[in-house]
Structure formats: C-alpha cells, structure tokens
Amino acid sequence: MEDNTNYFEVNKATWNKKVGVHAESEMYKMDAFKAGATSLMPYELNALGDVSGKSLLHLQCHFGQDTLSWSRMGAKCVGVDLSDEGVKLAKQLNAELKLDAEFVCCNVLDTSKHISETFDIVFTSYGTIGWLPDLKPWAKMISERLKVGGTFYIVEFHPILWMFDYVEGKPVMKHHYNQDEVIYEEYEGTYANQSSKMVSKEYGWNHGLSEVVNSLIEAGLQIEYLNEYDESPYDVFPDLIQLDNGMYKMKNQLFPMIFELKAIKI
Questions:
Q1: CA-based nearest residue to 184, from 194, 174, 193, 192
Q2: Which one of 64, 84, 100, 199 is at 20 to 30 Å from 18 when CA atoms are compared?
Q3: How far is the C-alpha of 206 from the C-alpha of 177, rounded, in Å?
Q4: Percent of the chain with pLDDT over 90
Q5: C-alpha dihedral, 252 to 255 to 260 to 265, nearest 10°
Q6: All domains in the chain, ordered by first residue
Q7: What is the distance between the alpha carbons of residues 66 and 78, in angstroms, rounded to a whole number?
C-alpha cells in the first residue's frame, strides 16, 4: 500500500494557511455567522431536517461553521479536521458562541483511533473526498462511527468537475473521471479568495460515483438515494451564473455540478 504521509502533510500545511484567509473572506461571512446566520446550504438542510437531540459527527469540518450550525439546531456535534489551525479556530468559535460542540484534529481516515462513540448522523460536505486516496477505509470508518439505523449523508461536487484543470482560469479537461494516480496542483490564492497571495500546494484524487456508492455498500450501508443537480450553492468554478434562488450554474450546462447521497447503516 502506498504511503501517502507526505501528501497529507503538504495538504495540512496548505489548509493551515487557508484558515485565516477563509475566516476573513466574503464567502464564509463570519460576522453574519456569529450573529446567528447558518452556514448550511439547502441540500443538507433538506436532507437531514430536524437534528434536535441527535448526535452528529462532521467529517473534514474546516473551522467548524457547519458543525456549529448543526449545534445551534440542537444536535450534539463532534467535528474532525486535519488542520490544527482549523480546529483551534473552531474551538474558539464554539466557546464564543457558547455552544457545546467538540473538535478533534486528525486525518479523517484515523477518526476511529480518536473517537470511539457512535453517532445518529455522520455528515460531510463540499470538497472532502478528493483529499482521500482510497474511499474503502473512509467508508469503513463511517460505518464504525454510525449507530445501527444511523444516517450517513454526503453532498459533494460532482466527479465530472474534477476532470478539469481550472488553474489558468478556464476549464481544460485533463484528468480521468476515476483517476488512481495522485493529482498535484500549485497555485496562488484559494477558492474563497482568489486574489490572496497565499500559495496552495495540494495533492488530490478523483473518485467516480461508482466508487463512492460501492465503498459504502461494502462497508454495510444501505443507499437510500443518490441525486445529481446542475446547481451549485458555491461560486467556486469559472464563469458561473447566479440564479434567482441564489444557486450557481454554468453558462452551457452539460453535466451536473453536485451530487448528494444518503445511506443508512443496516
């Protein structure tokens, strides 16, 4: 099995730099969030509904806005992230907002080494699985952390989007839909602030929908649904058009931008 430690270390260093830039960006709307606005988007709110009184594990939580948004809705939350700077800020926000979420700094694949409790809900969203070389250990960990009858929910950018290279400002098809080889990118700026001078150095992997679905089935989860949508809640790809409902689409939309999957541990 390939040792991916160096890749993870480079990604961690980049995400540590992103935390401060993102926390001050317009995209993350920190002042509005602190004043009570949710950071959650319509897909996940519709999918999970009333979470009051439920335990929720949020994987790859960045600096915890979504975790804390679920906490505000009455869930008992634990957030996990690779970035110690992200976890540090998440803990500060939790204290400032007088919430009861907990945060753990670890590689998401090592979650079961750090957390032994099981949850009603395991949640992850937007730009998460591309940081993982293999989804089988990821799915196994999700199954380990779910109660029987518990819900796993992911909303994520569609794998077709990751076939393109966006570094030059326009999409160029470059990568395989199911690419096994690691993809390295180095560029100035970040999706939340493209004019930032920080340099992002990132290693990632492409995972097609069949890999997502089959890894979860193999881990003992029953798929409730898999949906694909042309609309993205985030303006993070070139030349998107904002719709009246606040979502974003491509000018000549030929493929989906988002997928969501809900599964139950059986």
A1: 174
A2: 100
A3: 6
A4: 82
A5: 180
A6: 5-265 (3.40.50.150)
A7: 11
pLDDT, tens digit, 9 for 90 and up, residues 117-131? 999 999 999 999 999
Torsion of CA 185, 168, 192, 4, to 10 degrees: -10
Tokens (6 digits) for 153:
């929910």
Burial 99-137 (b: 16+ CB within 10 A, else e): bebebbbbbbbebeeebeebbbbbbbbbbbbbbbbbbeb
What is the chain's length? 266
Q: Is the pLDDT of residue 198 over 80?
A: no
Q: Report the alpha-carbon distance of residue 139 to residue 109 in Å, rounded.
A: 9
Task: Report the distance separating Cα 90 and Cα 101, nearest Å.
Answer: 9
Q: Is the pTM of this model over 0.85?
A: yes
3-state secondary structure of 120: strand
Q: Strands, E, within 183-247: which ranges?
A: 183-188, 199-204, 221-229, 241-242
pLDDT per position as a tens digit, 15-65? 999 998 888 777 788 899 999 999 999 999 999 999 999 999 999 999 999
**Is-contact 228 258, C-beta < 8 A?**
yes
What separation in angstroms does the CA of 36 have from each of 29, 51, 73, 91, 198? 11, 17, 11, 17, 29
Checking if the pLDDT of 204 tops 80, the result is yes
DSSP secondary structure code for residue 8 in this structure: H
185: Cα separation from own chain's centroid: 19
